[in-house]
Amino acid sequence: MRFVELPKAEFSGGELRYIFDTSSCYVPGIRQEGDSFQLSLTPVSMPRQHVDYITRIYDPRLTEPRVVTLIDNTGERVGYVELAREHEGRIARITNLLVEDGYRRRGYGSLLISRVKTMAKADGAESLRAYVAGINTGAVRFLLGQGMALAGFSTLGDELMLELEMKV
Prior knowledge:
Blueprint: E1 2-6, H1 8-11, E2 15-33, E3 36-56, E4 66-71, E5 77-86, E6 91-99, H2 108-122, E7 127-133, H3 137-145, E8 149-156, E9 159-167
């Protein structure tokens, strides 16, 4: 296994395609406890959906983005992670995380998260953040399993976005 950083000049505007099926979504809840509040996530069933969307890497709106690909021992690219800076570099944000179909549930995602945590620390970030669609239950479960916690939520158009975060 090896990680290779993709040069911005060569890969700017490149595309990553996310494809998954889901029959549930995560819905955030808020519970007040005295002067503070507690956020929680609840999985809710829904009609089965096939989701297929494309995103671009090295978006010019990102601050100092870096894209790393994970290459397996046969030379195949099995996953990608893109990291950008927020809040004067105190927060490193995962803007894209993808493990290719056929390579999921083999530990590659965990390797990518480990790598991005190392990159974030080296860049002086205090925390690592990701925004994930509530409908992408596999990604939400994975990131929660990696130690991220729900830090907030918002809507983007008609889509519920969950803000997950961890200290690095």
